[in-house]
Amino acid sequence: MTADLSASQARRIALAAQGFAGPMPAGTPTRSHLKRVVGRTRFLQMDSVNILARAHYMPMFSRVGPYDEGLLDKAAWSDTSRAPRLFAEYWAHEAALIPLDDWPLMRWRMDDFRDGRYRYTRDVLARSRDLVGDVRDVIVGRGASTPRQIEDALGIERATAGAGSWWDRGDVKHVCEALFASGELSATRNGNFVRHYDLAERIVGAERRDRVVARHDAHRELVANAAAAHGVATVADLADYYRMTTAQVRAVLPDLIDDGVVTSVTVDGWRDGAYLHREARTPRSIRRSTLLSPFDPVIFFRPRTERLFDFHYRIEIYVPEHKRVHGYYVLPYLVGDRVVGRVDLKADRSAGVLQVLSAHVEPGVDKDEIAQSLAVDLRTMACWRGLDDVNVHPRGELAPALSCSL
Question: Fewest CB atoms within 10 A around its CB: which of 208, 209, 352, 355?
Answer without folding.
Answer: 352
